[in-house]
Amino acid sequence: MQLKRLGQWCGFHLFGISLAIFLVINCTFLYDWSLKWYNVQADVSLTNTQIMHNYHQLIMYLSFPWVKQLKMTNFNSSMAGLQHFADVKNLFMLNEVVLLFSAVIFFFFIRELIKTKMLWQLIRPLQVAMVVPLFIGAMMSISFDQFFIAFHKILFRNNDWIFDPQKDPIINVLPEQFFLQCFVFVFVFVEGFYLFFIWMGRQELKK
């Protein structure tokens, strides 16, 4: 029974995290905001519409398993750049697999808690879990550059992620602030996910 509950909790957290990552990746309007906010088009001879078209091509390659090759209309890529995007695609595919499998565990876990009127048991563990994104966010706020470098060194076994703007000009329209924004939104979604179920647990206690 304890192993079952542990598996259910793992599925719960993995679902929340992988869902947050999936949503941020596919909310392309976040990138559109970055284009306008950080005046990215000033660094390239393209309009916002053209840049967004290329970004959609990139996201389609990264997010859809049936898109096998990365082809962007206005940006060439080096072999190292293509390899990095292939590595990123593998991570995105892994996240989607985790999302699908954890969704099943999450569904039956929540259904069980609702049927047995035990949603209140989520409150204390989730209050503790909420500290983790806040702690990571605090570390990130101290020095995002160092956090970003450490993040890539953990996830990737090579240095292909260090782009040369001359060989991989796509990096000119992917400002560091955009990646910071993505991390922030992932943390916000995860915190919101936890808060929602804390609220549900408290509502159950009121009945």
What are the defining features of this structure?
207 residues, 0% strand, mainly alpha, elongated
In short:
The chain is built from 8 helices and no strands. It has 207 residues and is mainly α.
Task: Summarize the SSE layout with pairings.
Elements: H1 2-26, H2 29-37, H3 48-63, H4 79-115, H5 123-129, H6 131-142, H7 144-155, H8 176-206
Textual characterization of the structure:
- The chain is an all-alpha fold.
- The chain has helices spanning 2-26, 29-37, 48-63, 79-115, 123-129, 131-142, 144-155, 176-206.
- The longest helix is centred in the middle third of the chain and has 37 residues, at 79-115.
- It is elongated and about 60 Å long.
With helices defined by DSSP (H or I, 4 residues minimum), what is the helix count?
A: 8
Shape: elongated
Runs with pLDDT <50, length 5+? none
Strand count, sense and closure of the main sheet? none
What sequence of helices (H) and strands (E) makes up the elements? HHHHHHHH
Q: State Rg.
A: 20 Å
Global structural class: mainly alpha
